């Protein structure tokens, strides 16, 4: 299927990351795409970077916005492609052939296509591949999501469903995916590709925002899936570190024997009832 893709990059005060992202996008072997850059009125040299690459952009603006999702919505509103993909400042396509390889997989019925993502933190030298499942069960979204940078989304879905929730700071893309997949019943497809290198040093990768993310997910479940809220809380409890340790003990013959011996020793010192 021949289709036009809109690549959208949002940026705020990340000039070095922005330049890396732009280079990653404009060096793609696939050429049937438009490139949109939305800057939040940066004061760190990002505007100069944008000016240096201006000829590569279909649309760009640098002005104050109301947060990440407001900037993303600006990009969506001006996008003319059949599909959109977000590659925000600091994020990279996995290699120069990614858009070409994705385009080859697109069929007329596809609405969300997703692959895998390489998570990278250059400050801590962390790097690992996050593999998304072939089947996106509802329970998967209780603690996880599909990385936005690894997804290509049909542009018309944002008209048919909604734009990103600008009241959220972290979880608006999570809200969009869970609503689109389980209420709107969109056509989804997994592809066997690492699509992007995601810079975990961004806002959503910060540990300071975990509680915000949890709260926004709970708000989404209460709004659209109220009958699943208790299941969500129970699953979080079962997936705590202590619960995971107990599950590991249960799976290990050796540690089950160790725990059994410890309990027997403890029972020796517990007075028996008459």
Automatic annotation (TrEMBL):
Q: Domain Glycosyltransferase 2-like, which positions?
A: 6-148
Keyword set, alphabetical order: Transferase
Return the CDD domains for the record.
GT_2_WfgS_like
Q: Quote the InterPro entries the UniProt record gives.
A: Glyco_trans_2-like, Nucleotide-diphossugar_trans
- GO MF annotation terms: hexosyltransferase activity
The record ties this protein, via Gene3D superfamilies, to:
Spore Coat Polysaccharide Biosynthesis Protein SpsA, Chain A (3.90.550.10)
Q: Which PANTHER family match?
A: COLANIC ACID BIOSYNTHESIS GLYCOSYL TRANSFERASE WCAE-RELATED, GLYCOSYLTRANSFERASE
The protein's name in its UniProt record: Glycosyltransferase involved in cell wall biosynthesis
Its source organism is Flavobacterium nitrogenifigens
């Amino acid at each position: 299927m021949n289709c036009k893709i809109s690549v959208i990059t949002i940026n705020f005060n990340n000039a070095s990351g922005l330049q890396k992202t732009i280079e990653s996008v404009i060096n793609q072997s696939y050429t049937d795409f438009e490139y949109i850059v939305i800057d939040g009125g940066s004061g760190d040299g990002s505007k100069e970077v944008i000016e240096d690459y201006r000829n590569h952009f279909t649309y760009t603006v640098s002005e104050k916005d109301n947060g990440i999702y407001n900037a993303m919505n600006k990009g969506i509103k001006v996008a003319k492609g059949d599909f959109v993909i977000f590659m925000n400042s600091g994020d990279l396509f996995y290699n120069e052939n990614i858009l070409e390889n994705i385009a080859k997989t697109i069929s007329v019925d596809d609405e969300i296509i997703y692959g895998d993502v390489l998570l990278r933190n250059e400050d801590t030298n962390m790097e690992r591949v996050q593999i998304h499942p072939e089947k996106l069960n509802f329970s998967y979204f209780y603690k996880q999501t599909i990385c936005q940078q690894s997804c290509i989304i049909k542009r018309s879905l944002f008209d048919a469903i909604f734009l990103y929730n600008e009241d959220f700071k972290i979880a608006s893309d999570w809200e969009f995916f869970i609503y689109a997949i389980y209420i709107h019943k969109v056509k989804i497809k997994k592809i066997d590709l690492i699509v992007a290198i995601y810079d975990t040093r961004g806002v959503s990768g910060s540990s300071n925002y975990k509680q915000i993310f949890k709260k926004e997910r709970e708000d989404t479940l209460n709004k659209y899936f109220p009958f699943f809220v208790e299941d969500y809380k129970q699953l979080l409890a079962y997936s705590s570190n202590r619960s995971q340790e107990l599950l590991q003990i249960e799976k290990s013959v050796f540690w089950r024997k160790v725990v059994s011996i410890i309990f027997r020793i403890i029972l020796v010192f517990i007075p028996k009832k008459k």
